[in-house]
Every structure is written in structure tokens, then in C-alpha cells.
């Protein structure tokens, strides 16, 4: 007769009831410990997932010298920030599936190979580096795949719909040059000749630059046109903007330049001005009451300046468009946060 058969039937029933109670209690306890932090269109983000994701931030910003109340408040703040990020990621993943965006294993391998090349690492060295940080190659590939998917999603939904026109670049460059219609004048329209030593730090080269600047002054005093002299003597050579330096309010000029320029009449130029990097001659082309009197011509701005301005405006527009796109996704989703 087995030991179980020796137990009376009533006691067996009691043991079964206790076991069932233990199982149910354990399940209930599991729900309490790993409760729901948020629900996004029916998909659950658990508290344990959220805390694991937030762990690096919690370890960084919560210290042992904080009071219990301070730690609790800081942790709550971090969890709210991280859960918002996780919600946005879930919404993005749903859009990726909806749009049929797929990234192949070959694309992931190419991205990793490119990363190894940029950091001068062999694949074995790369794997070892991942392992030293507790990351497996397979897990890293999953992360890279998500990054590429998100990049393609943002490219199709945000980047492709965002453009920066020449008119916007013009308005930006005018603003950077201090051409704000609301500001009060006077505004000084300046040209310059700049001559830097060909070998920085070499006294002989600096003397040659000074001699060249004196030759330029002599040419100007000989009534040669400023643009012509600037083109001939400037070093480095002038770009497409030519001798045009910009239009400046008095408050935007350095003390040295302001003292020199405010003594000039339109058409006059300074003597050679010694600067740490070279020598400069400045001509006052005009004094305007408003910025509108001195339009900025895009055709005279060099390509590098144009593209730099365009990139900056594009970044600003992309950030704004991305936030708008996320707000739109959130407004269409069913989101519940239970923190």
C-alpha cells in the first residue's frame, strides 16, 4: 500500500484544498508583483518590464543619501518618463507592421559590418566587446533591426514630408546677420578685406600678410574699387559672398570694430586692423534705418553656408514634425497608464 493510499480520504481532500489555495495565492501574488503599468491598444506593459527598462536611470539618479520620500518621488518621475517612451515605441512598432516595413538579416549584417569598420574592429573583437558588456550578438542584432525599422519609419512618415525652401534659408540667414525688421537702427552694412598669414604662427608669414594688407590700403587710396582690391588681396580667397561681411546693429559689433566703423562715412574704409589671426580692412558701405534697406542675396552666399543653414533648419523642422507625428499617433490610440 502506498503512502498516499494510507492517508484518509478526508485528509487527502484537505491537502488538495491547501495545495489549490497555495497555487491560487501564488498566482494572485504574481499579479500584484508584476502588475500592469500601461496598456497601449490592448498591449500590456508590465511594471517589471518598465522597471527593468528604467533601471539604468534609477541607478544613476537615485542615491542612498536621499530620504525614502525623495527616492520614491524620483523613481515615480523616472518611471513616468520611461513609460511614455515605451508607449511611443509600441505605437511605432504598430505603425511598422501596418506599413509593412521589413528589415532583412542581410541589412542587419551590413549595418554591423559598417559599425565594425568605423571602429576598426574585427567581428571577433566586436563580439568580445559586446560580451564584456553582457550583450549577446543575437540580442544586439535585434536592437539593430529595430533601429533600422524605426529609421525607415521616420524616413517615410517624417523626413520625406519635410523640406526647407530657399526662402526659408534666406529668412534664416537674414536673421543670423541681424536683419530683424523689428529692431531699431542704425544698421551698418560692411565689406572687408581679410588677409591671414599663410603659415599661422610664423613671424615671417605674418609680416608678409601685413605687407600685403598695406599694399591693399595703397590700392584703395589710389581709388581702385573695393571689390576688386578685396578679390586680389584677400587670403584665404573670397567665396561667392565676395567682400560682403554683413549688416550689423551697433550692439552686435565688437568694441574695436564699432569704434572704427562709427567714425566712418559711407564709402570710407578703416586702416589696417591687426587681429590675432590676421589683418583686416573694413569699409562702411551704407548705414540703414531698417534692415529691409539691405536685402541679402542668396546668389552671393557660398554653397557651404547655404547647406549649413539648410541642415540646421531641417533638423529643427524634423524635430517639430516628429513630435507632431507622435502626438497624432497618441491621439488615435487607446492608452491607459496605471502608475
How would the global form be characterised? elongated
Q: SS-based structural class?
A: alpha+beta
Number of strands: 7
| Number of separate helices | 12
Note the main sheet: 4 strands, antiparallel
Q: Runs with pLDDT <50, length 5+?
A: 1-32
What fraction, in percent, of the residue positions are helical? 55-70%
Order of helices and strands: HHEEHHHHHHEHHEHEEHE
Describe the fold and architecture.
With 339 residues, this protein is of the alpha+beta class. It folds into 3 domains: 9-94, no CATH class; 101-157, Porin chaperone SurA, peptide-binding domain (Triger factor/SurA peptide-binding fold, Orthogonal Bundle); 178-295, Chitinase A, domain 3, CATH 3.10.50.40. Helices cover 58% and strands 12% of the residues. The protein contains 12 helices and 7 strands. It has helices spanning 3-6, 9-33, 47-61, 68-99, 105-118, 123-132, 137-157, 166-176, 203-221, 226-233, 255-261, 303-332; strands at residues 36-40, 43-46, 187-195, 244-249, 273-275, 278-288, 335-337. A 4-stranded antiparallel beta sheet has the order 4-3-6-5. α3 (47-61) packs across α4, α5 (105-118) packs across α7 and α9 (203-221) packs antiparallel against α10. The longest helix is centred in the N-terminal third of the chain and has 32 residues, at 68-99. 15% of the residues are buried. Mean pLDDT is 83; it is low at 1-32.
